Amino acid sequence: MTRVLPLAVAILLACSLPAVAFPVGPSVDRTLGSAGGASVADVEPDGWLAPSGDSVTSGSGYVAIDASATLDADADRLESRYDSHLLDARLERADSDAERRAIVREETETLESAVAGLREREREAYRAYHAGELDEQQLAVELAAVHTSAVVLERSVSSLSDHAATVPDADRDEEFEALEVQTATLQGPVRERIADVLRGETDPTRVYVEAAGSGVVLATVQDGHFYREAYHADARDPAGESSLHSLGESEERIAELYPEIFPTARWSYSEVGYGAHRGTGTYPEGTITVYLDQATTDVYREHLTLRLDRVDTTPLGEETEDGVRLSVGTTAPGGPAVLSLSNADTGAPLSGKVSVDGRNLGETDDEGRIWIVTSRGSTTITASVGSTTIELTLEGSAIEGEPTSNATNESTSAIR
Question: What whole-number distance in Å separates Cα of residue 340 and Cα of residue 350?
Fold first, then answer.
């Protein structure tokens, strides 16, 4: 990785997480498709941003490692470097406005270098995952570290911007706007929750990963919600000539890209700056936030949150053994799926232990259900109720939406 300033080198080395600290969790058919290139984002029929092209790498990993000391150390080092009190002292010691402007310029350039280095670290993580050098768990942990550092850098940019406003003729609004957008792009709701897991602040979780070229999708189920984030660097061109000159034009473009979700949601729009507009739609199942590049007119960033108690699923497969039925209802590839245990004769919910690909997920709830994130590859589900054990394997084609041979044909509406 190329880093511009020695300070940035120190910051990013401090943020590095040794791969040996994170044992490999089970993966699911990580490589799909041929070896062709891919990067440009597609909005799939189910209304979600997804990688496109001939070479898509996907799978899931289990994140349950307590690396709080490492993550916190990353943040502490950055916090100490960009402590606003240190900047206050430097500006107060300056003998002239010219010297103060030089300090603001120097701090801005240092932050630009640090953010550029963090972006390079993220890109390197994507490349390593796609090349098979990182597994899903290692990628998730690396992106959680990037998120943690980006949060600190975002606060530092805001602090520097406030200080610059007190210095005559130190206007650097364009640089600050660009830095704010760039640091926000390095963050995400799934990364945030992975970081919480690593700090021991919430339960272990299974993370689904999908990558193609410069695009990546992360998804997880936690606390009754499904969280998904997608980012595609090739859809971003902040220096390009704008083709969307107003929020109204961006609204029309979002309506075109999300024909299923758009009519059912209440939308709000805002200017992000640095050549981007944001649209947030709230609909019965949850909330979606999309970031639209004004030059490419494509969505380059998307965050999705769904309430699982409002998600409709399509019956996908079931297996019965000794009066116990295991059934699966799914939504979309990489989306939430519900595993249900019930009495085959009465339909009454049953409590049982469930594992996916050999990894224990826990027990079903009072309604006999437990939620997971589906993979595009093969997934083996094992459930135990008393002395009865049931195993059900879902192949990639089934997860794409084709019912298995023992699945029912009746279905409810899919996620919009």
Answer: 8
pLDDT digits (tens, 9 = 90+) for 364-374: 999 999 999 88
**Token pair for 191:** 């990364």
Amino acid at residue number 70 = T
pLDDT tens string 8-57 = 322 232 333 222 222 223 333 333 222 233 333 455 545 688 776 556 77
Nearest to 301 by CA among 197, 182, 194, 206: 182
Length of the chain, in residues: 416
Strands 336-343 and 31-33: unpaired
Q: What is the mean pLDDT of residues 95-114?
A: 93
Could you identify the residue written with the tokens 């003729």?
169
Tokens encoding 395 = 């192949």
Confidence of residue 397 (pLDDT cuts 50, 70, 90): very low
Q: Tell me the whole-structure pTM to 2 decimals.
A: 0.79
- Rounded to whole angstroms, the Cα distance separating 332 from 48 reads 9
d(CA 181, CA 272): 7
Structure tokens given for 55 = 């070479």
The structure tokens 């769904």 sit at 306
- Strand order across the beta sheet in which 299-307 lies: 31-33, 55-63, 205-212, 215-222, 225-232, 299-307, 286-293, 276-283, 266-271
